[in-house]
Amino acid sequence: MSGNKARQVRHSTAVQVLGRIGMGCYGLVYLLIGYLAVRIAVGGGGQEADGRGAVAEVGSTPLGGVLLWVLAAGLVAYGLWQALLAAVGYTWIDKQRQRVAKRVKSGARCLVGISLGVYAARLAAGAGEQGSGDQKQQELTARLLALPAGPFLVIVAAVIVLGVAVASVVNGVRRSFERDLDLSTLPSGTRRWVERLGRIGYVARGVVFGMVAVLLGIAALAHDPSRSGGLDAALRALAAQPFGTVLLIVVAAGVAAFGVYCFGAARAQRG
After folding, report:
1. How far, in Å, CA of 104 to CA of 52, rounded?
2. Would you tell me how many other CB atoms lie within 10 Å of the CB of residue 206?
3. Is the CB of residue 205 less than 8 Å from the CB of residue 265?
4. In Å, how far from its chain's centre is CA 61?
5. How far apart (Å, rounded) are the C-alpha atoms in residues 18 and 24?
6. Three-class DSSP labels, the chain
7. pLDDT tens digits, the chain, 271 residues: what are they?
8. What is the pTM of this model?
9. I want to staple 227 with a disulfide (CB 3.0 to 4.6 A). Which of 52, 146, 219, 262 is the partner?
10. Is the CB of residue 202 less than 8 Å from the CB of residue 168?
11. In terms of Cα–Cα distance, which of 54, 50, 230, 59 is closest to 128?
């Protein structure tokens, strides 16, 4: 697809509507991750607090089958919207380096959205769960550790994840995310809440990704893939710290705040 054709598709009404609905589905996943993290904090058990656990939680409801198909469609739509942004988006960003960084992030969100959408569709079709997010992370870490210079490669991965974590915190503190929103499209009261929830949510996401980076680093140093893990393992590691229950509830609230932020940001997101 040529650049001009991709831009036309990106600005089409259908793509804009589906992409924004998809962003709401993406927000629902984060809202449920926050809910599942709170259940871990209070000892309630349940699904793992990660994207797959959130999708499985939707499937456990009385209308789970139907809702999973809706969620699958929304997440795939969100992923494809992010793919278009990665290809020809962020034209409102003047500096080329920043624009490239934004496009790379959209590419990553594309992969996450589509992978979760496919997972939701598999569950809706009765294919069953294909391992937890932590198991997938540990399997990937094991494959890396088995390579020549494996521990070094895992350390590099940990540094990359840590960079993502720091960038998320900075994004929230500096309110950089607002550059990608047209807040004038929102009522003034909603605008203030979107700004606040965005700041809280981005910082909370940064904390969780920082914990994922720490687990990867520990796995590399110990040469033990079982020490690594995804979001669920990171949240459980946080709960194991002094005052861990309180810390986990605070971070879970922040993660849920990011999910709610996505609902408002979906309307204001620059296309």
Report:
1. 23
2. 22
3. no
4. 22
5. 10
6. CCHHHHHHHHHCHHHHHHHHHHHHHHHHHHHHHHHHHHHHHCCCCCCCCCHHHHHHHHHCCCCHHHHHHHHHHHHHHHHHHHHHHHHHCCCCCCCHHHHHHHHHHHHHHHHHHHHHHHHHHHHHCCCCCCCCHHHHHHHHHHHHHCCCCHHHHHHHHHHHHHHHHHHHHHHHHHCHHHHHECHHHCCHHHHHHHHHHHHHHHHHHHHHHHHHHHHHHHHHHHCCHHHCCCHHHHHHHHHCCCCHHHHHHHHHHHHHHHHHHHHHHHHHECC
7. 556 676 677 678 888 889 999 999 999 999 999 999 999 888 866 678 899 999 999 998 888 889 999 999 999 999 999 999 998 888 888 888 989 999 999 999 999 999 999 999 999 998 766 666 778 888 889 999 998 888 999 999 999 999 999 999 999 999 999 999 988 888 888 889 999 999 999 999 999 999 999 999 999 999 998 888 888 889 988 888 888 899 999 999 999 999 999 999 998 888 6
8. 0.90
9. 219
10. yes
11. 59
Residue whose pair of structure tokens reads 């914990």 in the numeric block: 211
Which amino acid type is present at position 80?
L
Which amino acid is residue 161, in one-letter code? V
Return the structure tokens found at 168.
């998320």
The tokens describing 147, both together, are: 């390579």
